[in-house]
Structures are given as structure tokens and as C-alpha cells.
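Pilot study result, target chain (295 residues):
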Amino acid sequence: MVSAPHEAMHRVFQEYPSLLSGLSDVLGLELPPVASAELLTVDLTETEPLERRVDTLLRIRTENDGPFLLVVEAQGKQDPGKTVSWPYYVTYLNNKYRLPVLLLVICQDHATAAWAARPLTIGLPQWPTVTTRPLVAGPHNMPIITNVAEARKDLAFATLSAITHADNPGVDAILKTMSVALRDAPESLVEPLVEFIAQGLGNRPAAQQRRNLVAVDLSFYTSPLSEEIRDEGRVENRAEDVLLILSARSVDITDATREKVTSCGDLEVLRRWLVRAAFVTTSDEIFDEETAADR
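Predicted structure:
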């Protein structure tokens, strides 16, 4: 199953192909400025029953040099199968489009990045016929951006940097920088970047920090994801308030009550329980209204 971090690592190039130019210094390669990019089909399946798909495929048109194809692969772990598939992608695409092919691999951990960067050869040891050399961007070479001004220079690049450093111990500072940098950006730009960061973090512990930042620092911003995050925050706060009032009144809170309150996702129900928490004598009595309604 394709994971959210996997999607974020390559789909950000679909939205912001100019990211390639920003990676020049990181990758140690002088890449021409991107003038435009065209999203191509990622399906490399042949007429035979052999299906092969790249993550993202773009035809890049440059300002000065000729066009080329950019293959972006998001790699979350080492996969021996890529030893065969990556050279196939490059040679197949070169043959189909008659254009140079650049293979860019995005990683989120050092071990996978080191593995992905190894040249892949086809041929004899003493004379490789085909050599595929992926360019790799990951935590080993992407800068850690904790300066707001630097992040604002290229928000898409800063977003990719945050994604590749999702496992960095200092990711909270990175995310805080991004939330501040995005405050004054147009909503049309903020929306996809916030979504990519959310996907890139997946279910890591840092995801909760990102949710807090969206709920507070980007309170102006509305999207299905951000509204969901803020609703979750309101539910959690309301549930805590119910338990806090019971505790402040020295009402013993049973495990069953605590479980039912913390697992409730309905703000209106929690509001009713909050009111009842102010005068009940046992914690279970806050549910009496619901119990009576069920009879």
C-alpha cells in the first residue's frame, strides 16, 4: 500500500517542478532553470502483461537547454527490486520519448539514501554496458531550515526539506519555522504545502506537532484537512474539560467513564456531559441523559 509520506515526497514535484532548480546546490549538479513542466503518464506498462509505474514523470522544458524527462521516485526503504526497475525506467523512457532522462530519488532516512545513491550497472563487472546513477535528495544533503526568511525564499523547497527531515530530532523547530513562513503566503499556495507536510509526516510523533501548528499558527487557513485538525483539537480539549471539572469537584472518575469521554468525537455530546459534570455526584451520572434516551 502506498503511504502518505511516499506520496508527498514525489507529488510535491508535480505541483512545483521548479524544485529541481532549487536542488542544484544540494545535489552538487548544475541544473538548468525550469521554464515549464508537463505532467506525463506514470504508466510504463508494455503491451505484454508486465506493469511498471514510476511515481512522478515530468517533461521539463528549460530556459536555455533542450527538454528532458524527470523521473521522481519516493523511496521509504531499501528495495532490491529497484536494482532492476530503475535502469528499466531510464532506458524505456529514453527510447520512448527520445529525450535525456534524469532519475531523482527522494528519501527520509540516511540508510535508504545511501543505498539509493549507488550506481546500478548492467553488463560485465569489467565493462558495464549501462550504468544508472540516481540523484538522491534526503536528510544527508537537504538543509535543515529553521530560519523563517530562508524558508520564505522558496516555500516549496522548504516543504520538501521538512518532509525529508521528518525523522530529525529537531523536526519541531523545522515545522514551527514552516508555520510562521506560511502565515503571509497566499492561501492557494499554503493549501497544497500544508497537505504535503501532513502526508510527509505520516503517523510519526511529529504529526501531532504539525496539527498543533495548523490549529494555532495557521488559524486563518481553511481546508478540509485543517478544519479536521482543528475539530480534533476542539474535541480533545472538550473531553479534557469534562474530566477536569469532575476531578476539581473530587468526583471519582471510573475507568469506564474516562474511556467513554476520551473516545467520544461528538462536540455536542461532550458539551452536554460538560454541563452535567458540574453537578453530578458520580462520574457515570453524566451519561444518565443518554441512558434514559436509550430506554
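One observation from the pilot: The first strand starts at residue 34 and ends at 39. A full batch analysis is planned for the follow-on phase.
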